[in-house]
Every structure is written in structure tokens, then in C-alpha cells.
């Protein structure tokens, strides 16, 4: 009740409209939420909402379907009734769609017994009602028979009118479909892993040259020599081999990177961790200049 009030009466009071909103009572606006189960049940579905008396469907109404195979009992005999959609095979017990008027052009059907079958015609379906006609002579019955019935809980109950206008009852029960528990084999994902993660990741390791020469770059030594403009730096086997104004290497012995207009600095040591730490990032503006490391560097 407290949670429901926090969504209904309390907000209405907060905005000063407690006399017209927040309750289902005479004089209140017809603003409603319709669910198909308990309101706070995670499995419940919001079917529709009412706004000032107008219903707006969120999820289509659940309407029973006549599609499938039925065991039809009439006049002491058991027949098989089949109703199918030639355009879309459907065998589920329920069809979630807005009720529509179905004519014979869409659904097809037949009634059979002892290897004898007859097509049904004048097939009309609306919501849970069905009516159709058959020529009974093929099945050993006399004349034209008109069926009309109502569907409830996988059972159709109704009446049959003969050509003599006599009425008898009939009952049809939906035949259950045995679904085999087929084990599905999980497939490996087709997604590729990039290293490092993000926009600049690579599918494969890049070439690993033995030597790399960067020439004519601005070198930030962070040492006594300070910043060196238009200098070269040579790396061999992952280590700095030489730093000089002009380095020459044999052709093809190193990958040469033109560093004019570019800067080379030592690797930056970002001495912080996000693990089990608070007060790391400023909470309203995501900008690195406002990152605070107080509780990480000195947690005491």
C-alpha cells in the first residue's frame, strides 16, 4: 500500500490535485493502468492505460485462437476438426492480437472421420465465436449442417442446425501437441575480440619491428636536457637505443616515423585505481581535470 501510494495519492497531493487524481472514486479523472496480473508482479503485463476516460492499448489484447486440430463430438460420433491459416501456420493455444473478423478467405478448415473428409465453408470467426457450414453427405450425414459455438479454455461448445432446422449440441476439444524436448546446441559467438577494447582495438597483433626511428620530433626528456626540438630517437628491441639531433640507420633496418610537428614524451604513470575506492570522479561534469584522487592516494 505504501509503494502504491507513492505512485498515486502522494504525487497527487504534492501537486495539489488530490481531489481529482490518484484514486479510483466518483468525481476523479479516469486515469487508469490495466495489468493482466498483480500490479507489482514482475511477470504482469501492462495491457492498456486510460487517460481521461480514453483507453490506449499498450499490449494487444489476448484473444483465443481456433487454429489447430480439435476432437469434435456430434450425434454420438467423434470427428476431427482442423482449422488452419494457409498463410501462417500457427498452433499455439493463444494468439495475442486485437480481435478481428476472420472470413473463409483467410482461414481454411475441414472435418473428417474414417478417412473421409469434407471442407468447411462460410467460416466466420470473431473473438471467441465461430460459425461454419459443411455438406454432411460426404461424412454420411444428411444435408447441410450449420455449426455455431463459443470457445472457452480450449473447448468449443455450441449447436448444429440441420437442413430440417433441427438443433443438436456439439463439443470440440483442442488436441494437445506433444512437443519433444529437443536439446539445442549452443553456437560459438561470431563476435571478434579487439585488443585493446574500444575504437582503436585491433583484431590481430600489429607488426613488431625490431627497430623504430622517430625523426625530427619534439622530445620531452623530463630530464636535464629539457625539451629538444627536431631531434631523433631510436628504439631497438623495445628500449631507447639513441637520442640525437640526426640519427641515420641502414635502409630497411628500422621502421621510420616522420615526427615533424609531433611530440614524444615518457610514458605517463597514472597512479590510481578504481577498485574499492570512492570520491574518484566528479559527479556532475565528466571532465578529467576534476578527477579527485584523495581517497585513493591517501585513504586515511
TrEMBL record:
SUPFAM superfamilies: Composite domain of metallo-dependent hydrolases. Pfam families: Amidohydro_1 (PF01979). GO terms for molecular function: hydrolase activity, acting on carbon-nitrogen (but not peptide) bonds. This is Amidohydrolase-related domain-containing protein. Residues 3-54 form the Amidohydrolase-related domain. Transmembrane segments: none annotated.
Amino acid at each position: 500500500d505504501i509503494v502504491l501510494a507513492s505512485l498515486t495519492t502522494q504525487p497527487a497531493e504534492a501537486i495539489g490535485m488530490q481531489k481529482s487524481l490518484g484514486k479510483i472514486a466518483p468525481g476523479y479523472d479516469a486515469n487508469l493502468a490495466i495489468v493482466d496480473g498483480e500490479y507489482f508482479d514482475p511477470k504482469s503485463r501492462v495491457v492498456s492505460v486510460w487517460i481521461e476516460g480514453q483507453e490506449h492499448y499498450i499490449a494487444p489484447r489476448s484473444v483465443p485462437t481456433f487454429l489447430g486440430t480439435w476432437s469434435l463430438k456430434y450425434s454420438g460420433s467423434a470427428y476431427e476438426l482442423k482449422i488452419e491459416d494457409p498463410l501462417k501456420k500457427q498452433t499455439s493455444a493463444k494468439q495475442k492480437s486485437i480481435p478481428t473478423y476472420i472470413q473463409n478467405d483467410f482461414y481454411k478448415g475441414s472435418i473428417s472421420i474414417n478417412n473421409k473428409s469434407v471442407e468447411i465453408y462460410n467460416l466466420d470467426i470473431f473473438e471467441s465465436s465461430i460459425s461454419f457450414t459443411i455438406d454432411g453427405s460426404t461424412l454420411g450425414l444428411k444435408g447441410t449442417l450449420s455449426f455455431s459455438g463459443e470457445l472457452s479454455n480450449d473447448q468449443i461448445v455450441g449447436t448444429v442446425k440441420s437442413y430440417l432446422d433441427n438443433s443438436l449440441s456439439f463439443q470440440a476439444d483442442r488436441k494437445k501437441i506433444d512437443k519433444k524436448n529437443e536439446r539445442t546446441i549452443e553456437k560459438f559467438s561470431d563476435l571478434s575480440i579487439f585488443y585493446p577494447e574500444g575504437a582503436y582495438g585491433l583484431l590481430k597483433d600489429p607488426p613488431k619491428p625490431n627497430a623504430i626511428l622517430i625523426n625530427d620530433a619534439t622530445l620531452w626528456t623530463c630530464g636535464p636536457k629539457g625539451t629538444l626540438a627536431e631531434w631523433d630517437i631510436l628504439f631497438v628491441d623495445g628500449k631507447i637505443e639513441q637520442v640525437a639531433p640526426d640519427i641515420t640507420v641502414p635502409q630497411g633496418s628500422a621502421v621510420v616515423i616522420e615526427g615533424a610537428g609531433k611530440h614524444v614524451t615518457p610514458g605517463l604513470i597514472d597512479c590510481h585505481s578504481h577498485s574499492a575506492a570512492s570520491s574518484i570522479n566528479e559527479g556532475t561534469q565528466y571532465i578529467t581535470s576534476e578527477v579527485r584522487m584523495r581517497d585513493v592516494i591517501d585513504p586515511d
